[in-house]
Each structure stands twice: as C-alpha cells, then as structure tokens.
Amino acid sequence: MCGRFTLTQPAEIAARFELDNFAPPEPEFYTPRFNVAPTQRIVVIPTSDGQRVARRMRWGLIPIWAKDAKIGAAMINARAESVATKAAFRTAFKSRRCLIPADGFYEWQPTPRGKQPYRITLADGSMFAFAGLWERWHDPKTDEWIESCCIVTCEPNELTEKFHDRMPVILGDADYDTWLTATPEQAQRRGRARHRRGPCRRCISAPRQSAA
Question: 148 is in which domain, residue-wise?
C-alpha cells in the first residue's frame, strides 16, 4: 500500500532523471510536497517519442472504460503480481508505464495513543522513483481528456513489513529504461525484483498538508 508520499526537492527532478529541456511553466512542478495525497496532481515521468518527459497527472488511475472519474480514487495502487491481467491496469501496463519521483512515503503503526506515522526513505535521503502506470481518459460530460496514474506495489521488505503487507515498487536507476520501454514481461520481472532496493530508513514524521 502507498497512500501518502513526499517529494521535497522537486528542483532536482531534471538532473535526477536525465530530462532534456525541462522547463515546465507550472510553478507546481517546483513546489516541495510533504504530504501528497490521492486524487492530487503529481509529477510523473513517462516517455514521448522515446524520450523521458515530465508531466503532472491525477493520482488515481481512471481506466479507459470508466464511466466516471470517481473510480480513480480507488485505483491509487496496482499489485505487481496481477498488473498484467487485471482489467483496470493491463492496458496501461502494456504500453503506458512511468516513473513517479518521490523521496519518501508514509506508513502508520498503531499505538495506545493512536496511529503513529513513519516516513520511510532511502538511507541517504535521496530521490527515487516508484514504478507507475498512467492512462488517458475522456470525460464525456466535459469533453476533457484527463491523464491519471497509479503506483505499483509488491510484497514488503524487512523494514516495511512491520507496518503493512504491501509496499511501493522502488526502481533502481539501472531499471528505469527497462520499466519504461521494455516488453511487459521484462518490466513485470523487473518490478517484482527491485522492491528490496535499499538500504532504507524510517523516521517519525507527521505528514504536513500538501496542496494539489
């Protein structure tokens, strides 16, 4: 499960993901995010004509067959084990995979005083990429095209299994091109293999409000 995450140093996206001519006009691209929530617009890196590009998409994938955009709120995560076969995700997995920049994600642990949030990061605190999927959906009511996305999840590693039975797939740098452009079979093997990237660390951190 990945229901909240952080992207606190968005100015590093261009260098980190080797984006050419990265000059988005929207100031939101550069705004630090400490509590990214479902249905908000997030930075996503798909490919266009074989090159990595950065876009902002709604978090919560809206399948191409959906009758209403509301379904996206329930589609923030896709299980790596079934992403190639589940109706909501298989089309996007086949041809619209993406990277989702982040530098931490939250999990919660019950305590006598209530749930305690933990922010989980790489050991050095650096930016990384979740494995993601994206889709374009046409709203028949407004004639608008909406781009949306989700985060692929897998079984937890030794750190995150204390909090939840799922965790987001974190790709290593060498796996970016495989995830983005390889065959679905190669991408699925890579997505399952890279979820233990680390070392990771956890820290107590209350999520702050983050604008969409």
Answer: 5-204
